Amino acid sequence: MSEEPVNEPFGILRSLKKLIFVDSNEMANPELKPAIPKPVSETKSAENVTLAPEANLTQNTSGLPATDLKQMKVKVLEILEQMNEPGIDFFEVWNAAAEMGRVDASSIKAAFTSLKYVDKTLDKTKLIRSAQHYSTGLKQVIDKETAQKQQQKQSIEQNLLTEKANLSDEIQSLEKKIAELQEKLAAKQKDLKEINGKYTPQLQDIDHKISIGNTAVTEVINDIKNALGIIETNIN
Which residues form a coiled coil (predicted)? Predict the structure, then answer.
């Protein structure tokens, strides 16, 4: 294990995290550091041992979208750092190889050779077993997180279906009301077109009666005038 303080920004996996952001051109022509990793102690800090870390692999990191692969890999490495077990195993060899600039056959062999002097029990079997252990642990974490997100997804999908159904019902209700209003509108428009036919005969009848009344009165008045003229002429 590296002797760097555990409160450094990147912790024990600083080198691996830094490699994530190395430009592809730099990876093609790396300047490898000497094939001797920093001194390590045989026993890891108990602060690094967490068998079942709680993690949210979909949470944003540094304000960047969670879909950013590089940022997500950093989060995965942070989870792996929490799973770090006591002793020297794949975890330290991998990180020590990264200290040399990149992880390849040469850097891994150099890291393994150097760390074997610190921990005589370190061998190929231990490397493979511990690597598989960490891989399994990470898989369990992502499986748990995936299951939680699937439940969240199902809840959202159910809310979506419910809201769509409610909106469909409301739309059907509104469409029914609109159809009823359109029917009423058509009836009122028909009444409006026919309204003259309803009142015109009555108005014409009134006009006719007024005309006849005036004519009759005029004739009667004329008859009275004629009679009055006869009276004035023939009666002394």
Answer: 157-198
